[in-house]
Design the sequence.
């Protein structure tokens, strides 16, 4: 379920990024207990359906949207991600809302 991807990162950022292989981004329904992190804040996202006939958003699509917002906050991952069922409103054919906790991993020097 977890994958580790290396890459060039800033000096204050870890040299690895965790990826939830089921959805392709570092967004997880649970907690990450094997490395220290600090909470940046809550992140929220919503994914709308194009038409009434469109399929409901998949978990991968909802989690990607959640990740895009968390990444802009400077997050390394999102934990405790949750999303609900699509619902129709006066201005949308269906929208799926998601929430999670944006985190940043602590550097090894901070341990």
Sequence:
């Amino acid at each position: 379920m977890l994958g580790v991807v290396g890459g060039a990162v800033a000096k204050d950022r870890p040299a690895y990024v965790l990826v939830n292989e089921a959805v392709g981004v570092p967004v997880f329904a649970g907690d990450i207990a094997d490395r220290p992190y600090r909470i940046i804040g809550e992140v929220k996202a919503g994914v709308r359906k194009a038409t009434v006939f469109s399929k409901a958003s998949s978990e991968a699509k909802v989690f990607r949207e959640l990740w895009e917002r968390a990444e802009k906050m400077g997050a390394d991952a999102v934990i405790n991600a949750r999303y609900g069922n699509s619902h129709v409103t006066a201005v949308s054919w269906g929208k799926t809302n998601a929430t999670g906790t944006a985190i940043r991993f602590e550097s090894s020097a901070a341990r």
Residues 1-11 have pLDDT under 50 and may be disordered. The CA atoms of residues 43 and 100 lie 5 Å apart. Strands lie at 2-6, 16-20, 37-48, 77-83, 87-89, 92-105.
